[in-house]
Structure formats: structure tokens, C-alpha cells
Amino acid sequence: MTLGRRHGIALILMLVVLALLGVFAVVATRLVRTTLRLYYDAGRITDEARVLDAAVERLRRDVWSAGQVTAATPKSLSIDLGAARPIAWEVDKDGNVTRTDADGPQRWPAVGGRLGFEWDGAALTVRSADAGADRVGGLRLPSQLRLAEPGAVR
Amino acid sequence: MILHRTNKRTRRGFAMLTALALVALVAVAIAAALSVFRLDLRRTAGAVDDAQLRQLLLAGQRAVRDRLPRDAGAVPTIEQPMALPPPLAAEGAVRLHLRPGAARDTADAGIEARLGNRTATQTLRYERGPTGWSLVSADPAPPARTRVP
Question: Pairing with A85, which of A23, A94, B30, B86 sits 20 to 30 Å away (CA)?
């Protein structure tokens, strides 16, 4: 083998090694980035889910006892429980969910950015609270008072 | 020769550290993903149980209503379990409480539903009108976990 041919093989080997190193660097970078994002997202999703679950649970209990629900806009609700003053639910532009009753406001921060409400006379449909529920039309929160009325859908 | 051997050892050490770092990163990623999956699983299981409990509360409400007098008779005091279909009875129970209300022509009821180690309760008030009994208030307590001995 001539000296020139040996140099050519060494050059090709070096290029292959460089290419492999490049691929490794790209894969390692993506792995680090994905890991960091996943680690951050896991904590955020856990916190958001806990806060949103608490808000939906509270809303579910309000609607369960409601005689009448009025959804003035998809982002605001008025729930009549028979008390002097109805309970108001509102989602502001920052996604903060606020419930206001006679005792004052209660707030669940930054979890309801995409939430939407729709009242059909017997149940409140909440959209964008749960991806699984959205696939079947949203989360349905029934009013037992309305369901118990004669002629209500059972 | 000695220098060559040291270099080779250093390279191996570097490769080992890099491999370990990557394995550690993958482990962190898997742990983070698992924590999200576990939370999702727990939420889903809780949502399914709570939905079933709400169904039991609704059934309890119907059962209590059926026990109210159809005519102008007095409201009976009742405290009894509600019959459930066998698959449900194996892991759950519903208990009904009914008594006359403080005011005339009213009745107060309580429904306790249990499914596994989760429970839900609600307090109901009925009023008698010209067309019969109507449910005027329902006050649910948040679902709770009972301690399993």
C-alpha cells in the first residue's frame, strides 16, 4: 500500500469518526433538552392538575346543588343555590378561576386559560378541563335538583 | 509506552463517565415520565370511582323519593340500606336516612354512598306541594377516603 493511499484511508476514517461524533453530539443535546423539559413539565403538570381538580370539584358541588345556572359568557357563570346572592364563577384573561360567594372570593390561579362553560338546562359542560373528557364533548357536571324534576332526562 | 497507556486509560474513563451521565439522564427522564403517568392513573381511577359514587347518590335520591308518602300522610322515619345490583353490592353500599323536616310538609334525607375505600354523602330537603314532593335543596359533601383497617 502506498503512503498516499494510507493517508487517504486515515482521512476517511477521521471523517467517519467526526460524523459519528457529530451524531452523538446531536443525540446527546436532544436527550439533555428533552430530559430537562420533561422534568420541568412533570412538576408543572402535577401542580396544575391538582389546582384544576380542586376548582372542578368545587364547581361540581355548586352545580350539583344548583336550581338554576346562567352562563352569561363561556367564561362566566352565575349559580343559584337558593341563597340571597348567587355564586359567581369567572375565568379572567390570565386563566385565573375565581369563585365568589357571600363569604368572598376564592381563586385558583392560571389553570383555566382555555376553560369554557355551557349550560343545557340540566348539566353544565366544561370544555378544556380534561383532554380525555373533551374527546367525548367535555366534562359534564349535572344538577341533581334539575335531574330530579318531573320530566327531566334520566 | 507508559504515556500511551495513560492516555488510553483516560479515554476509557471519559467514555465511562459520558456513558454514566447519559444513563443518569435517561433515568431522570423515565422517572419524570413515570411520575406523570402515575398521577394520571390515580386521577383516572379517582374520577371513575367518584362518577360511580355520584350515580349511587342519584339512585339514593330516587329511592328516598319513592319512600315519601304519595298522599297527605306523615313522613316516615327511615334508616336502611338500599339494595344494589350484585356486582356493585360486592364493593359498595348505599344507606338512606329519611325523617320529617322541621317545617310542615317538608322532609330531610341523607344519602351515604360507599365504594371501596371512597365515600360520598349528601343531605337533601324535600317540600310537599300541590303536585307532590319536590327536591328543593341538595347539599353534597366532598368525596372522601375512608381509612381501611
Answer: A94
